[in-house]
Amino acid sequence: MAGLTMLQEAPNQGYASGAPAALVIADSADVAAAALDALALAGCTARKRVSFGEASADLSNYDGLDLIVIEAAGAPDALLDLVLARADTMARERSLGIVATVLPEQVDVAVAQLLGPHCQILCNPARAERLSAIAGAKWHARGVMDDVNREAESVRLRRLSEEVARIAETLARLTRSDDAEPRVGVRDRGSGYRGPDPAPGVEIDAAEIRSVIRARRMRAQFFADELFADPAWDMLLDLFAAQLERRQVSVSSLCIAAAVPPTTALRWIGTLHEAGLFERQADPSDRRRAYIGLSAKGIDGMRSYASAVKRAGLYLV
């Protein structure tokens, strides 16, 4: 088990020694143990462990860091969002990575404060997931993003977007008359992809989207879940239905809709947010809570795709 090394006077010791330096925020050594194990395996040095009480008072005194590791189990509710907000500010100002491990009931609070390429949120993670997250955060802090899992998911997301765009564009071309005025393509240089405007008379209602979601969930009765794990599309469908219903979706609810482990769902939420398809929406009645919704780009893409499928007489899947 890795031991804790107290913060030294030299502000750049972490860089000088070659081992990335981490500040661990946890309320006990027992809670911090798994993070320390992952840090050691990733070749990082835990420079200091501070409690949530100490972190809420001041984080600016801790220099020479590459990343901040937060273990939220047991953290007082009154301090959790404050510490997360301060850690996020510090990470943005100093180009640090953040790895925050939270309990299921803390997911909404975490996403309300932490969401961006410098943050990774874990929930009930396996040892390998902790190690992967810390390795990714370490290299982000030093200007190198080589987290293999994240890269693989980014590639998959791009392929998903391209496939949706290709299908929508093909269906739109097949269903319009030969003498119709040419439409702008589904994809454009500015947004990565953009579907054609929904045709007049083509209506999409939430019940149709919900039926697609139910059909997808029914597959689990006949096949192993992991054969069809597709969290990006499952979340896009859920948020599209919610948009049509004029209903807001909490982060924890969206994680359930993804039908994958919470840490995987949270990683995909971050990826789709970075891709400009999701947006974080504040809860005006509770600043500690955030909702996730489709961005204008996401809504446009989903409407265009669904409209093109219906015009072609096909079914959403």
What does this structure look like?
With 317 residues, the chain is an alpha/beta fold. It folds into 2 domains: 13-146, 3-Layer(aba) Sandwich (Rossmann fold), CATH 3.40.50.2300; 149-311, Winged helix-like DNA-binding domain superfamily/Winged helix DNA-binding domain (Arc Repressor Mutant, subunit A, Orthogonal Bundle). The protein is built from 12 helices and 8 strands. The strands form 2 sheets. Strands 2-1-3-4-5 form a 5-stranded parallel β-sheet, sandwiched between helices. α2 packs across α6, α9 crosses α12 and α10 crosses α11 (262-274). The N and C termini lie far apart (48 Å).
- Quickly name the level 1 CATH class of the largest domain: Mainly Alpha
How would you characterize the largest beta sheet? 5 strands, parallel
Q: Within the CATH hierarchy, at the fold level, what is the topology of the largest domain?
A: Arc Repressor Mutant, subunit A
The CATH architecture name of the largest domain reads Orthogonal Bundle
Beta-strand content bin: 5-15%
Order of helices and strands: HEHEHEHEHEHHHHEHHEEH
What would you give as the CATH superfamily of the largest domain? Winged helix-like DNA-binding domain superfamily/Winged helix DNA-binding domain
Biased composition (Basic and acidic residues): 179-191
GO molecular function, one term: DNA-binding transcription factor activity
InterPro entries: HTH_MarR-typ (IPR000835), WH-like_DNA-bd_sf (IPR036388), WH_DNA-bd_sf (IPR036390)
Pfam families: HTH_27
Would you kindly provide a brief summary of this structure?
The protein folds into two domains: 13-146, Rossmann fold; 149-311, Winged helix-like DNA-binding domain superfamily/Winged helix DNA-binding domain (Arc Repressor Mutant, subunit A, Orthogonal Bundle), CATH 1.10.10. The protein is built from twelve helices and eight strands.
